[in-house]
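New to this. Help decode both lines:
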Amino acid sequence: MRQKTINFLITLTTFSIIILGSYLVYSPLDNLLKKEFGQTNTAFVNRIVDGDTIGLESGEHVRLLGINTPEKGEKYYAEAKSFLEKEILNKTIELKFGKDKKDLYNRTLAYIFLDGKNINQKIILNGFANVYFPSEKDNYYEPFIEAWRTCIKNNLNYCESSTDSCSKCISLISLDYALQKTVLKNNCEIDCNLTKWEIKDEGRKKFIFPEFVLEPKKEIAIIVGKNKTEGAILWERGNYVWTKSGDTFFLRDKDKKLILWQNY
């Protein structure tokens, strides 16, 4: 009887050690994986709000992470929405969440997948969105930037290059997010009419040039703020446009075709 009790206690102790060891080893690993790759879920899509927002059968609205598509009234808005409808409307998708699960509008934030393919990335690749990481860059940033470069190479839609006579003349000399200042230069020997050209960040902040001609070999500074600076154009847009955590500068002609872009 005594020996049976001893054997039982040995077995119980061994089992407890195994359970404890498994917890100590796998629990931190599991937490690490969740932190690195985010939690996942599946859902049925019953509505497409626009190119980067969808509605679920549950009533939730999901804002697609890592991308920004044209707003209503802008070029390629309808095409971006139509593309997403063809891809995922009335289908069951997988959602992968990032660091923050909700935005300021209480929309769920997620990367969405269908048949193992990243739909967010696919939207960029087909020229209906630019890369958009307003808070911080995660593991999807580099693949998304590569998709954007491929889109430009293929000259598709939102990535289509300008054919303006000054499209190869204008360069971005500097972008200082601390001073909220960008400087453009006309490198050619001709006048460049920048009227209605557009500067845009990764999100919705946009500057449209007034009637303005940049003379040969001249520079022009565009400064965000409310105080007029001599020799510069004022972008009256609150306190900032360019984010400290990283952003992208886009310059487009009057027809919204891409002149240049630069990220940091």
Q: What stands out?
A: The chain has two domains: 40-158, 161-263. Residues 40-158 form a domain with the OB fold (Dihydrolipoamide Acetyltransferase, E2P) fold (CATH 2.40.50.90). The mean pLDDT is 87. The longest helix spans residues 2-37.
